[in-house]
């Protein structure tokens, strides 16, 4: 499958501006927010590629709210996004994987009407071994006057935008504002993101699955049966499926978005509520997958309809080609019958 799906030479900045033109009466605040965010992504991309030279690999002495030791590059990416967005004048409040509390805008700076939730550097365990990592984000309109916890606890379907940056063989920026999914690749020689894949559509069914099978014995019987089913030879249904697992969630989901199949991150004996975070990981990714014609659930419920109770809440996550996700749901529904 070819990655480049457009014959146009369009920059990300132009694309964002053109999207604004589709909304008569738009103030330009949302457009400006996206420009500020892509600037932060460019800085993180530069520093990821020079991490070894800049001595930002390795661990800090800190742990985050989840009890995970913080990587130095994690901390740097988090601080970069916070500094740029707090000074943008477009943000009311933010929530990050790395911060225990919400991130407010100082009183001496202008506050905007938007809410940003983000995972600054997904795939931390792969940072020091030079494997693909990424940034995930979701955007909402504020629903309180000043910006508080309630603003970051909105259901995922309330998002007005979502996306991710992938730092791999090239830096890819993928985003949606509710009118399809578009991908851009960064060309450092001109300092621009260029459109490479517009209106991405995930296949309705594929022959790939992505999951950490090392946890197989900790899964429910329905989850085990589904993965066993994927490995049975049956030419009529296109089985066996091929496993593709990178270990950076955003990288595995990027592959799924392009080639189809199913990404699986179930609950298990050690993580009864799953492990991925609903607010700043599952919701933005579910938004993108649905915009590309796919399906995203917790095994029973649509991810985007879940109401978060706190912004570090965890959830199982299953997303990808609609027919593959529906087949999984059949197995999970039948496991207790």
Count the helices. How many? 9
What is the CA-CA span between the terminal residues?
A: 40 Å
CATH class of the largest domain: Alpha Beta
CATH architecture of the largest domain: 2-Layer Sandwich
Strand order of the largest sheet: 4-3-5-6-7-8-9-10
Mean pLDDT: 90
N-to-C SSE series?
HHHEEHEEEEHEEEEEHEHEEHEEEH
Our count of domains comes out at 2
| Count of DSSP strands | 17
Strand count, sense and barrel status of the largest sheet are: 8 strands, mixed
Helix content: 25-40%
Beta percentage is 15-25%
Shape: globular
Derived from helix and strand composition plus strand pairing, the structural class reads alpha+beta
Instruction: Give the uncertain stretches in residue-range form.
Output: 57-61
And the CATH topology of the largest domain? Fructose-1,6-Bisphosphatase, Chain A, domain 1
Describe this structure in words.
The protein is 30% helix and 23% strand. The strands form 4 sheets. It has an 8-stranded mixed sheet with strand order 4-3-5-6-7-8-9-10, sandwiched between helices. The protein folds into 2 domains: 12-197, Fructose-1,6-Bisphosphatase, Chain A, domain 1 (2-Layer Sandwich); 208-334, D-Maltodextrin-Binding Protein, domain 2 (3-Layer(aba) Sandwich). The model is unreliable at 57-61 (pLDDT under 50). The protein is built from 9 helices and 17 strands. Helix 2 packs antiparallel against helix 4 (72-86). It starts with 11 loop residues before the first helix and ends with a helix. The protein has 337 residues and is α+β, with helices and mostly antiparallel strands.
């Amino acid at each position: 499958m070819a990655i480049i799906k457009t014959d146009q030479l369009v920059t990300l900045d132009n694309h964002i501006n053109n999207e604004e033109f589709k909304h008569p009466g738009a103030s330009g605040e949302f457009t400006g927010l996206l420009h500020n965010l892509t600037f932060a992504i460019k800085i993180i991309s530069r520093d990821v590629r020079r991490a070894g030279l800049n001595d930002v690999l390795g661990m800090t002495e800190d742990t985050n709210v989840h009890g995970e030791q913080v990587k130095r590059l994690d901390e740097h990416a988090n601080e970069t996004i916070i500094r740029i967005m707090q000074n943008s004048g477009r943000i009311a409040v933010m929530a990050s994987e790395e911060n225990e509390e919400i991130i407010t805008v100082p009183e001496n700076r202008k506050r905007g009407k938007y809410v940003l939730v983000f995972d600054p550097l997904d795939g931390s365990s792969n940072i020091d071994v030079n494997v693909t990592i990424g940034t995930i984000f979701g955007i909402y309109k504020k629903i309180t006057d000043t910006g508080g916890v309630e603003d970051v606890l909105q259901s995922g379907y309330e998002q007005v935008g979502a996306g991710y940056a992938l730092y791999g063989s090239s830096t890819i920026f993928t985003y949606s504002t509710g009118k399809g999914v578009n991908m851009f690749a960064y060309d450092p020689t001109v300092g621009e993101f260029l459109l490479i894949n517009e209106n991405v559509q995930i296949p309705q069914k594929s022959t790939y699955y992505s999951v950490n099978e090392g946890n197989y014995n900790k899964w429910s019987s329905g989850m085990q049966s589904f993965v066993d089913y994927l490995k049975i030879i049956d030419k009529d249904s296109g089985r066996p499926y091929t496993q593709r697992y990178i270990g950076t969630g955003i990288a595995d989901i990027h592959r799924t978005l392009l080639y189809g199949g199913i990404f699986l991150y179930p609950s298990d004996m050690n993580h009864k509520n799953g492990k991925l975070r609903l607010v700043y990981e599952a919701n933005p990714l579910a938004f993108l997958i649905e915009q590309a014609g796919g399906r995203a659930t917790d095994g029973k419920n649509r991810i985007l309809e879940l109401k978060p109770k706190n912004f570090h809440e965890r959830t199982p996550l299953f997303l990808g080609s609609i027919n593959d996700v529906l087949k999984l749901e059949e197995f999970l529904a039948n496991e207790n019958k």
